[in-house]
Amino acid sequence: xxxxxxxxxxxxxxxxxxxxxxxxxxxxxxxxxxxxxxxxxxxxxxxxxxxxxxxxxxxxxxxxxxxxxxxxxxxxxxxxxxxxxxxxxxxxxxxxxxxxxxxxxxxxxxxxxxxxxxxxxxxxxxxxxxxxxxxxxxxxxxxxxxxxxxxxxxxxxxxxxxxxxxxxxxxxxxxxxxxxxxxxxxxxxxxx
Length: 192
Description:
By secondary structure, the chain is of the alpha+beta class. It has helices at about 5-35, 45-85, 160-175, and strands at about 95-105, 105-115, 120-125, 130-135, 140-145, 150-160, 185-190. The strands form two sheets. It has a four-stranded mixed beta sheet, with helices on both faces. A three-stranded antiparallel beta sheet has the order 4-5-6. The longest helix is centred in the middle third of the chain and has 42 residues, at about 45-85. The protein is elongated and about 80 Å long.
């Protein structure tokens, strides 16, 4: 399944579970308020408890899928930005996107594969905000961001250079296995 379909599914699941969670919380508040006022409700508190736990479960599911949606959406935005830049290449360059590859139980997905008269170029797209620090040999890089309230927080991200080097290796092995030898280069496009 491609990433645009996944993004749509994650959003739909987020909306449905978010609505169930919201209705559960509102129902809890309604019953609690009416109990405090001594008025009758459509459903008793005891009858509502299983529904409340279902709502809480949906809140957890919402959080998981909404985070997946945001991460995937950010990645797709980065890919769109890189594709806009790559579209300016001469017509002799062919650009293929979101290419799954595998060799010897190693799997990867190439964001942008450029076939040029001089060889093949792999472009890994990243859409990170804030300041990114790290070097080519590090396993992880550090991302520092400032929140709207001025708080600075850091996060670690996988080294995208290692990621694109892995893609270059896998693709080169696939081509060698098929008797094709050509130059393959890898780059990281940082949008954000």
